[in-house]
Write a structure and sequence with these properties.
Elements lengths: L1 E5 L11 H9 L4 E4 L9 H7 L6 E8 L5 H14 L5 E6 L3 H6 L8 H17 L6 E2 L4 E2 L24 E4 L4 H10 L2 E3 L8 H15 L9 E10 L3 H18 L7 H8 L3 H12 L3 H6 L3 H6 L1 E4 L1 H12 L6 E5 L3 H11 L1 H6 L1
Parallel strand pairs: 1-2, 1-11, 2-3, 3-4, 4-7, 7-8, 8-9, 9-10, 9-11
Antiparallel strand pairs: 5-6
Length: about 350
């Protein structure tokens, strides 16, 4: 299994940890991931990292599709990829939510499933360079012919060629969106898959592969999970330290009627706890919402404990998950080293 790392994106200033990423590359880490909300963007840090690294893949986790046209996203990803030597960039795309899409970017939420399908299809057409770019989708049309159009738009073909095109992955979680990911994309940024529902997600993948109609299967598709790792003798204390983040996302991220993290916790089999966290958080009872996060839920989605406990739980609960990679999040250098040892990342890097 390959390992990834993620860099901070929600700070007051931009700080790209170049030396840390170079160190993780030397440990055999396969990918580094950036993100965006309504502060720093997700692509610029990857261009900076491309100049300071040699082989680690450069992923966006995720580009908010409301922030850019699909053509601009394709251009930016391809530009960084060619500057990085080719074959290193992963364009992870996601919808975000209506509060950011309409409140920050000033674009309509519309029909998100249709928009994401149009978006990926357009990018794939650009990279294929099989003809002049035209698209007549329910959400996006090229050339544009809607309100305010001059009528002078014409189909174009990218001047840039793509001997190695950036990979396109999607961050999705709802059934139809996961199926669409398997149908159209090169990979999936896992959202809501745990041991108890793997078979459900596999069924969605396989339906999507069948829709692709070209013999596509798991060999043509990557799946990137995520895991928080804390080496400690105080397991209960570490559980508690993880709860405020979970409570914030499940209880307060997005509109109360459209919170994807709340829906994800339901899909993971923790619906009753998710509803209670949301109820308390929205009532202004944040401390009670934090306490409502079950210890077992935290433990199920992380590796916490001394080295022996982490090794055992990795072997029993994570090693056979259908991930091709996992993004490690930790405040401890020794945790990153431990994970590299567990998966044999250094040996893979040597190959």
């Amino acid at each position: 299994m390959k390992l990834g790392c993620a860099i901070e994106y929600a700070g007051r200033t931009v700080d790209v940890p170049v030396e840390k990423v170079k160190w993780l590359e030397s440990l055999g880490y396969d990918s580094v991931w950036t993100a965006e909300a309504y502060g720093s963007d997700t692509i610029t840090p990857l261009a900076y990292l491309a100049a300071h690294t040699e082989r680690i893949r450069l992923g966006t986790g995720v580009i908010q599709v409301g922030a850019r046209t699909p053509t601009m996203t394709a251009m930016q990803l391809a530009t960084v990829d060619q500057m990085a030597g080719g074959g290193r960039v992963i364009g992870g795309l996601g919808l975000s939510g209506p509060q950011i899409v309409e409140g920050w970017y000033g674009t309509p939420w519309g029909k998100p499933k249709d928009r994401l399908r149009d978006y990926v299809q357009i990018i794939n057409k650009i990279y294929a360079r099989e003809g002049y770019l035209e698209h007549d989708g329910p959400e996006i049309q090229l050339p544009y012919q809607g309100p305010g159009a001059s009528g002078l738009g014409k189909p174009l073909k990218s001047m840039l060629h793509f001997p190695q095109k950036p990979a396109i992955w999607l961050g999705t979680g709802a059934p139809e969106m996961v199926k669409m990911t398997a149908e159209l994309a090169d990979g999936w940024l896992a959202f809501g898959m745990r041991r108890g529902n793997v078979d459900t997600f596999k069924a969605w993948f396989e339906e999507g592969f069948a829709r692709a109609g070209n013999g596509k299967g798991y060999d043509d598709f990557e799946i990137q999970g995520g895991i928080s790792v804390t080496i400690t003798d105080d397991v209960k204390g570490a559980f508690q330290a993880n709860k405020p983040f979970i409570a914030l996302y499940v209880g307060g991220m997005g509109h109360p009627t459209l919170n994807f993290h709340h829906k994800r916790m339901h899909r993971e089999g923790w619906g009753e706890a998710a509803d209670r966290i949301l109820e308390l958080f929205q009532a202004g009872k944040r401390e009670e919402a934090i306490e409502a996060v079950p210890d077992e839920y935290v433990d199920e989605g992380a590796l916490i404990g001394d080295v022996d406990r982490i090794k055992t739980r990795w072997r029993d609960l994570w090693e056979d998950m259908p991930y091709t990679g996992v993004t490690v999040r930790s405040q401890q250098d020794e945790a990153y080293e431990l994970m590299a040892d567990l998966v044999g990342a250094k040996d893979s890097a040597g190959d």
